[in-house]
Amino acid sequence: MKRFRIVGLALLIVVIFFSICSISHSLSKGKSSTLQSIGVLDQPSALLGNFPQEVRPDIDIPLPLEGVSEQILYRNYYIVSYNKDNKIPNWVAWHLTASHTDGNVSRPGNAWHEDLDVPAPRANPGDYKGSGWTRGHMCPAGDNKWDSDAMYNTFLFTNCCPQNANLNSGTWNQIEISTRRWAEKFGELYIVCGPILFRQQHEKIGENGVVVPEAFFKIIVCLNETHPKGIGFVCRNTDGNRSKDLYVNSVNQIERITGITFFPHLPKQLSEAVKNEANLDDWER
């Protein structure tokens, strides 16, 4: 009888030990992301599909699209909703922290490469050659100087759209630089960007028929401030190098334009705070 009491006590100690370890792990994990701290990522529905173990589940991705080709691709830094019919992404989402806004990794030469995770036909370097369009990053290389693998992954064609050269090096680049500055200022941001396709016949390039978007959107959300905020930009895919303040839209406005529901699992009050208004002064001052 005494032996059974000893065994039972030992089992109880083991159970208590693992319970403490589990709680400690959960608390530690909860500090890694604002979305986790507000409980968004406690909901399984907050993620579309299951993240591979090597990918951090710290992005509340848009709701599944209706009537649109969609393949979700999980990278080590960003997530893509890929459209096999258009050979470009529907959207790309990522979590930009202050520590990821700079680094020593340089842009690799001849880095653009096919994404073998999507079905053929798919975009390749030949499609862009002589097309008159540049290869426009959605998740920018400049957000990934902190890691060579993350940098290389931004040069997959599933993270790319045909983009006007002046827009790519002008207003779009200006918005990317500002976003990194805001990440340094506010600590972390949640970002979604992608193409906008008007209801018309689209230009296509290359043998694989890569669709040229008529415009682009970018949404930036800050959740860790006393006053959470969101801002969006919509840029026509045409010549132009004007100030970014001319392209400001609210997240709600971009949802209406694109038909995409962004950050669907934020609590209602927080969602309204970041989606209803877009004031550039709140970010710049």
Strand content: 15-25%
What name does the CATH topology of the largest domain carry?
Extracellular Endonuclease, Chain A
Largest sheet: 7 strands, antiparallel
Class based on secondary structure composition and strand pairing: alpha+beta
CATH class of the largest domain: Alpha Beta
Helix content: 25-40%
Oligomer type: single chain
Number of helices: 9
Terminal residue distance: 73 Å
Can you tell me the CATH superfamily of the largest domain? Extracellular Endonuclease, subunit A
The number of distinct β-strands equals: 11
- The main sheet orders its strands as 1-2-3-6-9-10-11
Describe the global form: globular
CATH architecture of the largest domain: 3-Layer(aba) Sandwich
Query: Taking Cα atoms only, what radius of gyration do you get, to the nearest Å?
Result: 22 Å
- pLDDT below 50 for ≥5 consecutive residues: which ranges? 6-31, 43-54
Q: What's the average pLDDT?
A: 86
Summarize the helix and strand pattern as letters. HHEEEHEHEHHEEEEEEHHH
Number of domains: 2
